[in-house]
Amino acid sequence: MSAPLRTALLAATFILTLIPRVWGIHRHFALLEDQVRDWGIALGSFTSLPLVGPPTHFGGYTIGPAPYWILWSIRVVIGPWFQNLPHGGGIGQAMLASAADTLLLAAVWKRTGSMWLALTAVVILATAPFDLALAAVIWTPVVASTLVKTATALILLEWPRRSLLRAGVTAAIAWGAVQTYTGTVFAALGIFAALLVEDGMRQDWRAVWRRALVVAGVVGALQVPYLIHQAAHRFSAPAMSAVTGSLSRIIRGQEPLRLAASGARYVKAVDFIAVSPWHLSAAGWILLACAVLLAVRYRHDPALLSVTLLPQLAAILGYALWLGDLQEYYYLSLMPAAVLTVLLGATALVPARSAHLAGIALLVGAVAVVPARLRHAATLPRLPAYGILLDASRQIVRLKQPMRSIQPQFDLPPSTDPEFMFRILGGRIDQRAEWRAEISPDGRVTYLR
After folding, report:
1. Apex 219 CA angle, 214 and 221, nearest 5
2. Whether residue 408 sits in one domain with residue 346
3. Structural domain boundaries enclosing 58
4. Least enclosed by CB within 10 Å: which of 46, 136, 145, 382?
């Protein structure tokens, strides 16, 4: 394919993956607790950002400020185009995801030599209903998954092999994913291994040590804000205490290793995220068979195996040490590895003369189910009242009067702040103000003294 056509295909991939992610987001953006908290922080100055990541649902917080750096950058670059409203952050997040998809397309295309397999992988990943429904929601697991996808694509493009600086940038992206959402540590492990393994296979130990020192230096540098935060709190602030607690209890023999449960949960997550809205009872066996075929077919490509098989194996082993509940979104960052495992494994035995047709057939099948997947994504949780709150907030701001309160006359999730957008748009909430506003379900605003 000529360079102009290749560029056009990559541009089309970005646009066509972005549109379903952001379609109607200004009417149904999920403005919940995490979004209000994190977008509110991003509205401040860079120097006011926390030195650690957001709090986690099981206590503590993530171990670095990368998610806030990313969100603040989105707010600065994209936010002004949308009056700095929260859905502007969601659009910026979706743009990052589509850029990562485009990069992954180029990477798989180059690595396998098949445009069809690369397109199939991107179609499956970008239209997965669970991922699609969350793509434009300000939420750390989604951002972390995008960072993992980006680093994986760079590995497959062999971009880090050309210099230590590029290796350091790739390591920084991978560790930024860990700071954004801790569950991506397994994918980051695969990316770090891919940075070292090819020199190791050549027994160039000097190069291995140089790259290992670069990776360690990058990780150490990115952890400086965390150390400053801990020092300011005299190392008493909790971080990942729940994780270390589970690990300690299993090591001491107080709880059994949950290997079988971890494997079963991973298979269920792949089925839920990558196969939905359908269900494959044999998903585990298919994944295992494709993993074996992939390992055999690409045994001379250790970097590819490092970013596909290693993260999945590490996650199964790692979550076997976790005593809490295992939710499907924990595995979101592993979906590129799982999808590539199935596609590359399933085509490993296809004769070379038939590989072209097999790739086309897979792409046709992936595209054929896109409408059903888009319809299913539209049924997943959203906040239709967002558009009502946005229109009402704009109407109230035009009065140029402070409000005592803004009260919707319809149900909202408990963590949604109905006054948040009013304040962003320049409105002022004052408990001594003369007027308060009520918003009816049809969007009409009534002012009461």
Report:
1. 95
2. no
3. 3-377
4. 46
Question: Is the same domain home to 390 and 330?
Answer: no
Q: Are residues 399 and 329 in the same domain?
A: no
Asked if residue 39 lies in contact with residue 76, where contact means CB atoms within 8 angstroms, the answer is no
Instruction: Flag the least confident range among 226-240, 258-272, 331-345, 377-391.
Output: 226-240
Residue in this structure with the two tokens 């092999």, named with its chain if needed: 161
φ, ψ (nearest 5 deg) of residue 406: -125, 120
- How many helical (H) and strand (E) elements, i.e. helices and strands, does the chain have? 21, 3
Which of 353, 377, 401 represents a domain boundary (last residue)? 377
Q: Do 46 and 177 fall within a single domain?
A: yes
What's the total number of domains in the chain? 2
Whole-model pTM: value is: 0.94
How far is it between the farthest Cα atoms of the chain? 79
User: For residues 338 and 423, what is the distance between their CA atoms, to the nearest angstrom?
Assistant: 43
Flag whether pLDDT at 134 surpasses 70: yes
Residues 171, 309 share a domain: yes
CA 353/CA 77 separation, integer angstroms: 48
Same domain, 50 and 131: yes
- Cα of first residue to Cα of last residue in the chain, in angstroms, is 68
H/E run at residue 403: strand 403-408
> Are the CB atoms for 242 and 324 separated by under 8 Å?
yes
Collapsing DSSP to helix, strand or coil, 445 comes out as strand
